[in-house]
Amino acid sequence: MCGIAGIYTYAGDPNPGISREVLVIRDHMAARGPDGAGLWTSPNNRVAFGHRRLAIIDLREEGAQPMVDRFGGHTIVFNGEIYNYLELKSELTSKGYVFRSESDTEVLLAMYAECGSGMCDRLRGMYTFAIHDAKSGDLFLGRDPYGIKPLYFADDGKTFRFASQVKALVAGGAVGTKPDSASLVGYHLWGSIPEPRTIFRDIRALPPGSTLRIDSRGNHHRSEFCSIQAVLRDAHNHPAGSRADVRTHLLDTVRHHLIADVPVAVFLSAGIDSQVIAKLVAESGHADLRTLTVGFHEFTGTPQDEVPLAEAGARKLGANHTTRFVTREDFQDDMAPFLSAMDQPTIDAFNTWCVSKVAAACGMKVCLSGLGGDELFSGYGTFRDIPRINRLARTAAPFPLMGKAFRWLSAGWIGKFTSPKYAGLFELGRSTEGAWLLHRGLFMPWELPGLLPAEILRDGWAELDPMVRMAETTAGLKTDTLRIAALEMCWYMRNQLLRDSDWAGMAHSLEIRVPLVDIQLLRNLAPMLAGPQPPVKSDVATLCGLAELAKRPKTGFSTPVRSWFSSPDGTAAPARGLRDWSRFALRAAIGQDLRP
After folding, report:
1. What pairing do the DSSP bridges indicate for beta strands 204-205 and 290-295?
2. pLDDT-based confidence at residue 569 (cuts at 50, 70, 90)
3. For the chain, which end, N or C, has fewer CB atoms within 10 Å of the first or last residue's CB respectively?
4. Could you give the CA distance from residue 255 to residue 207 in angstroms, rounded to a whole number?
């Protein structure tokens, strides 16, 4: 796990200051890679790569980056892990490739020499990389199918810049920071910035599951090699296998995610996902099972207290377990560094920040997270609530004006019984996408005029076109389960959970691995998800020998942030709820309050 940066000057004169700018961008990400720093500049001063290293596989100097290969002179910077690199290395060795390191980075270089742009079809892992092709002079970039690892870029018509973090690109001083209208609309709708946009108009994210080649004339050639939606759409064309296969596939992904030359721990809660992962780690033959739980004194004795059940699970597995408590004082001390590290505004992430800080304090570099289990195994309330919302809302189909009329009439009283968002039940609830927005949305479309200036809202809504984009995500998916899973994976998980795990973990030099967010696992399970009885969380618990967890209600890992945002005497602080926090985080990110 690392931080990567680069500049590719494809027009105009060579840039004599190219190395200095890359160093500034690179070292803004020092926390992503405290174990080493590298720089490579082309002889003509048109290309420069920077790298910050968190050494996980092949800790020796031979694994350092940027790395230049002996297969064709190509140069790479790479962030992430390739979990099937040993299998790929064996294949390449049989074809005559000779390796000087034990790193997955060198395998990527050999894969490029062997397969060119088609290399990503063979990779299993979380990754972003950039390769300078010594023969063509092109710059070639790739990103994993889920978008677990981020890659941001800016192109001013002469120079292409990229980095692992938005704030790092801005720190280089050559990229504009005008807020992006569509991103502001998306942020207010969901509490996170929808990719491929970022909070700044001049910076974009490389879409997940795609590659991008920039040639010496500045032409961009983007190609999609994998998409979550395509895997789900294709699910009906493959046999589902037996229910017992679920455990086999889960054990396979856990084994792949244990590959490391440093200790690997498990974030352990009382929930099914992390307990299953810990149990499968133990069953995989992993020599040293380490588990970590974070607790909060405010939750002691309540259903939100994760500590007793997590510790009981650790004892059953014989794990080397650590429990640490986070306090209000920790929260107050951490607020400034938390906001400084936050790469883009978000309404979440403090929980990940807490566990990452504790893991780093325990000397860990790699932790496994249960993120992704709710999306795979219908763990969220959306999987149950959205079909019910659809059925209820469609009763009003013969009355086209009923949706808006109900919203206007109910706006004053519905908040006494449920979320005020549900005033839009009959207006949005007829489609999967609209019902999902009702469930996941932070603010509703009709609330935005009070939150954003009219010009930003008008332009941003037209550019983002959120209902159309969500409909594109679900197009061709035949069941409620697949449609909801696609929305959860491609919007909530990608734009919030995975992004927050990346920056909040790396702020503490911690690699967070997500075994349940694995493209091969999704391909294996998708035919079951498409069937009439898709496996759910309780099935997973039972299949993995944790039947006692099958009936436990879902709580989710939460922090007592709302109470911490009040002063000790109970008086209100600037941000108590998610909606207040959203404005607070946005103001911290762009330095202004946009409310009209």
Report:
1. unpaired
2. very low
3. C
4. 28
241: alpha, beta or left? (left if phi > 0; alpha if psi -120 to 50) = left
Q: Using CA atoms, how far apart are residues 179 and 198, in angstroms rounded to an integer?
A: 9
Handedness of CA 498, 144, 34, 586 (dihedral sign): negative
- Confidence label for 404 from pLDDT (cuts 50, 70 and 90): confident
pLDDT value of residue 554:
67
Domains plus CATH for the chain? 2-226 (3.60.20.10), 231-377+488-590 (3.40.50.620), 382-482 (no CATH)
Structure tokens at 571: 């008086």
Residue 573 has pLDDT above 60, yes or no: no
Which letter does DSSP use for residue 545 in this model? T
The pLDDT value given to residue 565:
67
Model's pTM, two decimal places?
0.95
Which residue is associated with the tokens 């985080």? Answer: 585
| 39, 69 contact by CB (below 8 A) | no
DSSP 495: I
The distance from CA 504 to its chain's CA centroid, rounded to whole angstroms, is 11
With the C-alpha atoms ordered 339, 342, 347, 353, is the resulting torsion angle positive or negative?
negative
CA 418, 423, 428, 431 torsion: positive or negative? positive
Rounded mean pLDDT, 536-546: 94
Report yes or no: 559 and 354 within 8 Å, Cβ to Cβ. Answer: yes
Residue 475 has pLDDT above 70, yes or no: yes
Q: What is the DSSP string of 115-144?
A: HGGGGGGG--EEEEEEEE-TTT--EEEEE-
Q: Closest Cα partner for 320 from 283, 362, 352, 356?
A: 362
Report the 10 Å Cβ neighbour count for 12.
10
User: Are the C-beta atoms of 113 and 36 separated by less than 8 Å?
Assistant: no
CA distance 135 to 434: 49
Long-range contact list for 113-118, CB < 8 A, 24+ apart?
113/69, 113/71, 113/72, 113/74, 117/211, 117/213, 117/223, 118/225
Place of tokens 């009906």: 236
Burial of 387 (0-12, 13-18, 19+ CB in 10 A): middle
Confidence of residue 277 (pLDDT cuts 50, 70, 90): very high
Q: Which of 226-230, 307-311, 328-332, 445-449 has the lowest mean pLDDT?
A: 328-332
Q: Average pLDDT in the 238-250 region?
A: 92
